[in-house]
Amino acid sequence: MLQIPQRAIPADPGATQPSSVVPALRDTRLDVYRALCLLMIFINHVPGQYLEYLTSKNFGFSDSAEAFVLISGLSAGLAYGRKFIDGRRLAMTLKIWRRAFALYVAHIMTSIVTLAIFAGGALYFGRQDLIGEINIRPMVDHTEQGFVAMVLLGHQLGYNNILSMYAVVFLLLPGMLWLLRLGGGLLLAVSATLWLVAGIFMIVPSNFLDEGYWFLNPWSWQFLFVIGLVAMTHVQRGGAIPRHPLLLALSAFYVGLSFLWVILSWWNIDFSYGLPAVLTGFDKTFLSTTRLLHVVALAYLLAVLPVFSRMTRLRLDHPLVVVGRHSLAVFIFGTILAMVAQVILFVTGKSPLWGTLLVLIGIGLHFAYAYYLDWLSGLSRQGAIPA
How big is the chain by its Cα radius of gyration, in Å? Predict the structure, then answer.
């Protein structure tokens, strides 16, 4: 996961995927892990069904959101690490900020569609109590202020809070890359300091319509993104992720301890000793150390153990590779599907069996939509060749 192969896996000559759509040489491992994260995020966004108990959040301190942000940092290292050089920094900065704006627009779009889905369910099924779900009520009670707050990222709906955090992190990315040119250690130190200060003093963007704040604090989560960014850039420059027995043992021990802690519900054990919650708690908003160490330890094991690399080196037309290749579009699609499924579950009595069926259908639609995007990309590429 954290290593770039010395020789990328070539496209299978028997694959149905057109070779013009994606590079002939592509490391599929990040695509596979990204796809697994997207599918688990979708499953977790439809609570109250059986498949929810099979996702990673039930077997450790961190969940698919942490893994997705770490992978995003790795991907950013691949995409921008070598390109942020003298003479191109302004162009790259504008390109990165354009991506941040696209993420912002995607966040606003999914939020508006989510509002329409729940409002439509309330009208069509006569269930006004739907308006009380996922933090919609403040938008209805204070409509004018609510829309202004949503556009200014001052109000977030439930299950619609990842892209806003991700957009802010991308706004910070040019500064990260500038510090990275001065040294990876410097960037890690600055990022870790920001994470620690934000966690101790609870520095987090506030909501406008209530006394709450963002569910995923970008000043905290940027540290996880930076870890991925620095790791990938280090490997690109010829470095390697050390495969040391002690690191392997410590990582395996911590992942195992986290597994037992969650499975056996040891949440009543207090080891805080008066320290800030960001160091000893399990808070997701400020990305407590327990969650941060878990996702990093798990990523380390996936990176250095050959068995996982072999399992994730797949054909370019493999369903997981295709889903991971179109991550943003698939994520938006999955968010909308999850909101529809939540409304259907709500008005049908929240049956776990019915919810599981909806999620299985949604997973199938994820793959169908990803293949549609691949087919569409192939048409666009082929149409551009004559020009």
Answer: 21
Backbone angles phi, psi at 211, to 5 degrees: -90, 10
Contact 205, 213 (CB under 8 A): yes
Task: Give CA torsion, residues 10, 15, 18, 23, to 10 deg.
Answer: -20
Alpha carbons within 13 A on the beta-carbon side of 345? 22
- The DSSP symbol for 213 reads B
- For residue range 158-193, what is the model confidence (pLDDT) as tens digits? 999 999 999 999 999 999 999 999 999 999 999 999
53/219 Cα distance (integer angstroms): 30
Report yes or no: 129 and 116 within 8 Å, Cβ to Cβ. Answer: no
Here the tokens at position 19 are: 């070779």
Report d(CA 385, CA 382) in Å as an integer: 5
Helix axes 184-201, 218-236, angle to 10 degrees: 160
Helix segments in the chain, DSSP class H: 29-44, 64-80, 89-125, 137-141, 143-151, 162-182, 184-201, 218-236, 245-263, 277-280, 289-304, 306-312, 319-325, 327-347, 352-384
Rounded-to-integer distance, Cα 18 and Cα 324, Å: 17
CB 341, CB 47: distance < 8 Å: no
Residue 195: both structure tokens together: 């994470």
pTM of the model: 0.91
Terminal Cα-to-Cα distance of the chain (whole angstroms): 38
Report the C-alpha gap between 341 and 361 in whole angstroms: 10
